[in-house]
Amino acid sequence: MKSCLIVDDSRVIRKVSRHILESLDFTVDEAENGQEGLVHCQGTMPDVILLDWNMPVMTGIEFITQLRQQPGGDKPKVVFCTTENDIAHIREAISAGADEYVMKPFDHETLQIKLQLVGMA
């Protein structure tokens, strides 16, 4: 079974994402911010990370930058899930190491398509 870590400060987004991912046969863990997410990854590296951009403690960009420098941090597919939709933000996310980008709010079909694009669904 594939594993996914949801890193988002919104409890509602984590709940909705968890529901979609579990219906796609993922095991799911959650983190409220980038720092919690990094600690989780140091213990168990997930197959996929759904990552919010704007969070307290550590932003999504700070998270992915540090993740990609860790041993095994190049392995997870990272999908940014955010309201930031201009081309500059998308470019920044991709150049920081993101594999895909999905706009909030998203639905089951949209997330499934993004996971297929990164080879995880």
What is the typical, i.e. mean, pLDDT?
Answer: 95
Cα radius of gyration in angstroms = 13 Å
Strand order of the largest sheet: 2-1-3-4-5
The residue ranges in which pLDDT falls below 50 over 5 or more consecutive positions are none
Q: Using DSSP, what is the number of strands?
A: 5
* Helicity, as a percent range: 40-55%
Beta-strand content: 15-25%
Overall 3D form: globular
Quaternary status = single chain
End-to-end separation: 11 Å
| Biggest sheet features | 5 strands, parallel
Task: Please state the structural category.
Answer: alpha/beta
The number of helical runs is: 5
> How do the helices and strands follow one another from N- to C-terminus?
EHEHEHEHEH
Question: Any descriptors?
Answer:
5 helices; five-stranded parallel beta sheet; 121 residues; alpha/beta
Quick recap:
With 121 residues, the protein is of the alpha/beta class. It has helices at residues 11-23, 34-43, 60-67, 87-96, 108-117; strands at residues 2-7, 26-31, 48-51, 77-82, 100-103. Strands 2-1-3-4-5 form a 5-stranded parallel sheet, sandwiched between helices.
Word description of this protein:
- With 121 residues, the protein is an alpha/beta fold.
- 42% of the residues lie in helices and 21% in strands.
- The chain has a five-stranded parallel beta sheet, with helices on both faces.
- Helix 2 runs parallel beside helix 3.
